[in-house]
Specification:
CATH superfamily of the largest domain: Aldehyde Dehydrogenase, Chain A, domain 1
Bound molecules: NADP nicotinamide-adenine-dinucleotide phosphate, magnesium ion
Number of strands: 23
CATH architecture of the largest domain: 3-Layer(aba) Sandwich
Radius of gyration: 23 Å
Strand content: 15-25%
Number of helices: 15
Helix content: 25-40%
Strand order of the largest sheet: 15-16-17-14-13-19-20
Largest sheet: 7 strands, mixed
Number of domains: 2
Length: about 475
């Protein structure tokens, strides 16, 4: 597979002529594609193309913009299996999850198309006669979208769809590790007849092309999903030039299992939350806090579930846990496991590389990890989770909340009072009652609180906040 940049409606090589090879995390000796490595000059060209396209696109009636989305969604459905297989080949995401994500990307486009018919303002009672007083939401302008590899179809789409439907034009920076998946999206929009320059798509390294977008004065807003250090760095730089910034960062998501929980469902949710996508989800379950009375029972059933899990080739549709995305991720996660043991954690299962070639780590479960240590506080982006024992709900909530992050949290219980306490006190933007910490519907807001985010939430009706500017209009009628 090969891929070029999509700038101003044309497919082109990097201005530097540089390319890079993408390898398969399951078979690292295999090159799965060669992609253009965009330069800072390409980023500048993409922003210029987006600026040129802005006036015509933003003045097009929203339902005409949305009509293109529906065609693009159909194009995406038609190639969903290819998108899924390519996603698996380049990121190692198990095919069963990649298929779900490809389908979901098309659903997001359809949802966003419907937003074209929603109100974009409010009418108020005037304070003087013969006045119409109202608000209007208008596009922000050129927006840059900087996306990670772990949801390489869903995250680009849930950013670009609202950006475009509200009349902005876009420069999308795909993750280095997932170029092919994102280029499928560009191809679908090109097929659907999107006007040139409305969506520009760049592949290449974040430190070069991402950084160039952040510094470009033509970019009026940046939506970023990724790691804390990169996000904070670009926020500070972009905010300094009054550029709007939205960050979706990491998490350290707790799952609380109360004494009255349906244990088998809780075990399934813990397994899926901790280990699907090899734990490489911002919403993955990093801590499993289990109430005293059921701790031993839960622990036994959970370890049995881990032992029965299907770990291996991500292209096998039965596989539940595949490899990590690349060698440096493998090294980082193995180092974190080592640190967990050094700091007193007991390894109950896993903890090692599980394949000679593939970047595969066996699903790993710790216990006896102290609350203040690395594993309990820092996001380890891999198949690693820890069990904690607690006695009262007060204690469980306090410890669940004792991290800097606040992305998602889950509880298993049958007790309504416990649910009420949890939904009031759990410090996270996404709360799950009797389901796993990961997972997001397309039509509701998504985003973290505390250290997990910055700026308005994404998706659903929340997306309008970031991708539009609110203006207030005092419209007085002329005298007769
Ligand atoms: P990352 O290294 O921060 O990369 C995210 C994006 O930023 C990539 O496109 C990357 O490009 C780009 N980038 C890197 N350096 C840059 C710079 N100096 N200026 C501008 N852009 C730059 O994150 P990751 O390792 O791909 O993803 C894992 C992290 O994302 C985890 O912490 C995870 O929790 C978080 N995440 C959060 C959410 C959420 O919604 N809260 C969802 C998914 C993931 P390259 O790919 O070329 O490096
Ligand atoms: Mg990175």
């Amino acid at each position: 597979m090969t891929g070029r940049l999509y700038v101003g409606g044309e497919w082109r090589e990097s201005s530097s002529s540089r390319t890079y090879e993408k390898r398969d995390p399951w078979r690292p000796s295999e090159v799965v594609g060669v992609y253009a490595a965009a330069s800072a000059a390409d980023a500048a060209d993409a922003v210029a193309a987006a600026r040129l396209a802005l006036p015509a696109w933003s003045s097009l009636p929203a339902d005409r913009r949305a009509a293109i989305f529906r065609i693009a969604a159909a194009a995406l459905d038609a190639r969903a299996e290819d998108v899924a297989r390519d996603m698996t080949a380049e990121t190692g995401k198990p095919l069963r999850e990649a298929r779900g994500e490809a389908a979901r990307a098309a659903t997001i486009l359809r949802f966003a198309a419907g937003e074209a018919w929603r109100p974009v303002g409010e009418v108020y009672e005037p304070s003087v006669p013969d006045q119409t007083l109202y608000t209007r939401r208008r596009p922000v302008g050129v927006v840059a979208l900087i996306t990670p590899w772990n949801f390489p179809a869903a995250i680009p789409v849930w950013k670009l769809a609202p950006a475009l439907v509200y009349g902005n034009t876009v420069v999308l920076k795909l993750a280095y590790e997932a170029p092919r998946t994102g280029l499928h999206l560009a191809e679908c929009f090109a097929e659907a007849g999107l006007p040139p320059g409305v969506l520009n798509v760049l592949t290449g390294s974040g430190s070069e092309v991402g950084a160039a977008l952040v510094g470009d004065p033509g970019v009026r807003a940046i939506s970023f999903t990724g790691s804390v250090p990169v996000g904070h760095g670009l926020r500070d730089e972009a905010n300094a030039r009054n550029c709007r910034v939205q960050l979706e960062l990491g998490g350290h998501n707790p799952l609380l299992v109360m004494g009255d929980a349906e244990l088998d469902r809780a075990v399934e949710a813990a397994y899926a939350g901790a280990f699907w996508s090899a734990g490489q989800k911002c919403t993955a379950t990093r801590r499993i806090l289990v109430q005293d009375a059921v701790y031993d029972e839960f622990r036994g059933r959970f370890l049995a579930r881990v032992a029965a899990g299907r770990v291996g080739d991500p292209a096998d549709p039965g596989t539940e846990v595949g490899p990590l995305v690349n060698e440096s991720a493998l090294r980082d996660v193995l180092a974190a496991i080592e640190r967990g043991r050094d700091e007193g954690g007991t390894l109950l299962t896993g903890g090692h590389r599980a394949h000679d070639d593939a970047y595969l780590i066996a699903p790993t479960v710790f216990e006896d990890v102290a609350d203040h240590t690395f594993l309990s506080c820092e996001e380890v982006f891999g198949p690693v989770t820890s069990l904690y024992r607690f006695s009262t709900l007060d204690e469980g909530l306090r410890r669940a909340n004792a991290v800097e992050f606040g992305l998602s949290a889950a509880i298993f219980t049958r007790d309504l009072r416990t649910v009420q306490r949890f939904t009031t006190e759990a410090e996270a933007g996404i709360l799950h009652v009797n389901s796993q910490t990961a997972g997001a519907d397309v039509h509701v807001p998504f985003g973290g609180i505390k250290g997990s985010g910055w700026g308005p939430h994404e998706q659903g009706r929340a997306a309008i906040e970031f991708y539009t500017e609110l203006v207030t209009v005092y419209q007085d009628a002329p005298a007769e």
